[in-house]
Design brief:
The protein is of the alpha+beta class. About 25% of the residues lie in helices and about 35% in strands. It is built from five helices and nine strands; from the N terminus they run ααβαββββαβββαβ. A nine-stranded mixed β-sheet has the order 6-7-8-5-1-4-3-2-9. The longest helix is centred in the N-terminal third of the chain and has 14 residues.
């Protein structure tokens, strides 16, 4: 089971969705694009990457911010409530930052509503990442995890960047 690799994603999603609701951020009309699993070491990254391959149809791996990031298109989506999540993002650890292993954030696509959405909740955001040509990011941090919001899906950005999508 994929939970043996990434842990209890349903409890993770419940906590984040509850936190969003308490913050009065309405995501009812927006999909959860993907879920991110962090690792503490490069060895752990390689082990988790290998384990996730058996649950995936495709892998995309590239260098971003001076480290590898693997993205997996799943054979079976992670399902929770009305959400169906088809991708897992697995960033290798950065030398400058230390992260605990485990599920760390979700990313939600708001599409063409992005600018209106950002403006509507502007007093809530903890940050803006504007370093991707194709996808600006706003995010909110909660006690242990974070939620990021974008205009485009991760797979759409992968295609726009002409990254290699490798069938497993």
């Amino acid at each position: 089971m994929i939970e043996d690799v990434i842990g209890d994603y349903k409890s993770f999603l419940k906590d984040l969705l509850d936190s969003l609701a308490k913050s009065n951020i309405d995501i009812a009309n927006y999909p959860i694009d993907h879920i991110c699993f962090r690792t503490e070491t490069l060895n752990e990254y390689e082990t988790v990457k290998e384990s996730l391959r058996s649950f995936s149809t495709h892998i995309i791996e590239n260098v971003y911010h001076d480290r590898l990031i693997a993205k997996f298109i799943l054979k079976e989506p992670l399902v929770f409530k009305q959400y169906s999540i088809l991708m897992i993002e697995l960033p290798a650890p950065q030398k400058a930052n230390t992260y605990l292993s485990g599920l760390e954030h979700i990313e939600i696509v708001v599409g063409e509503d992005f600018d209106i959405f950002v403006e509507k909740y502007k007093i809530i955001w903890d940050g803006l990442e504007d370093d991707n040509v194709y996808n600006k990011t706003v995010f909110i941090n909660f006690e242990k995890h974070k939620v990021k919001f974008h205009k485009r899906s991760l797979l759409e950005v992968v295609k726009l960047e002409n990254q290699d999508i490798i069938e497993i």
